Amino acid sequence: MPFTVPHWAPGAPLQPLSFDWLTRAGIELAVLRLDLLDPLLSGNKWFKLKPHIEAAAAAGADGLISLGGAHSNHLHALAAAGRRFGFATAGLLRGEPQDTPTVRDLQAFGMQLHWLGYGGYRKRHEADFWLPWRARYPRLLPVGEGGGGLPAARSCAGIVELARQQLAALGWDDYHGWWLAAGTGATAAGLVLGERGARMVHVATAVPPGHGVEAALPAILAEAGMADTGYRLRDASRGSFGRLDARLASFIRECEHASQLPLEPLYTGKALLALRDEVEAGYFAPGTRLLFLHTGGLQGRRAMAQRLEALAAVRQE
Ligand SMILES: Cc1ncc(COP(=O)(O)O)c(C=O)c1O
Q1: pLDDT value of residue 242
Q2: Ligand 1: distance of its center to the CA of 182 in Å?
Q3: What number does CATH give the domain 44-147?
Q4: Ligand 1: does its nearest atom lie under 6 Å from the Cβ of 183?
């Protein structure tokens, strides 16, 4: 059944963060808590999905079909949106059937799931990949992995305004730049679009060099007719996407104790640790004011909780 998207513009608080490593370096940091946007539709995912959901509604589709892994924040948000706004969803999953907290939520939200195996999932960039799925679900709009591209980036540009509206409440008249995690770079491209070169966007990549962010960001900016400037990439992957280690685990634990800021390891945890390393290496001049974007993803942390605790304990011994 075709659906309409109700007007929904949730807010997210901008909060000051205080850590001893920031104080020592004379740096001020505030975090835009997109993780608090909504209990289910949180993080950068809502901004990235919104244009796709609107396109599906405008086309008279019944819903959307997309792909991701067994812990995917993207599929989780899409399934939650489908349930919230009353549209159908289907998810194509990487690998063999698994029972993860995310998969259980997808099922509870009513998403139709199909496991593609690893080989089948690798074919997702091939020209005819969508043909059988279009035939099977002719009334669902296909959305590529992660839902990136220019429409998603344009939607993410709105995040800049969300933060700016709250600067005065922090007692800040301005800030020098953003620090955020990137997977595909679409969210970061959105901040660059929103800033229009006014402030630097520091992009801490959750994937190692060569995994696409270097190409995706300039491509989105070029499509928007903008110069390839206003950002810098910094590898925050710690060797590979998805790798957890004891230093990261104990850093996340320390942050949570010091500031009550919940972090998931793969994106926000790695990004904040990379910021600490740069602050401690003297990259930023004293007096610098930065905004850290909390891109959410906390649902994906459930499956990693035990491993994180075990790693943090190793570090303490
Ligand atoms: C929690 C979280 N943070 C950051 C990102 C990176 O976003 P992008 O792919 O737009 O760079 C993602 C998604 O991939 C994510 O799930």
Answers
A1: 87
A2: 5
A3: 3.40.50.1100
A4: yes
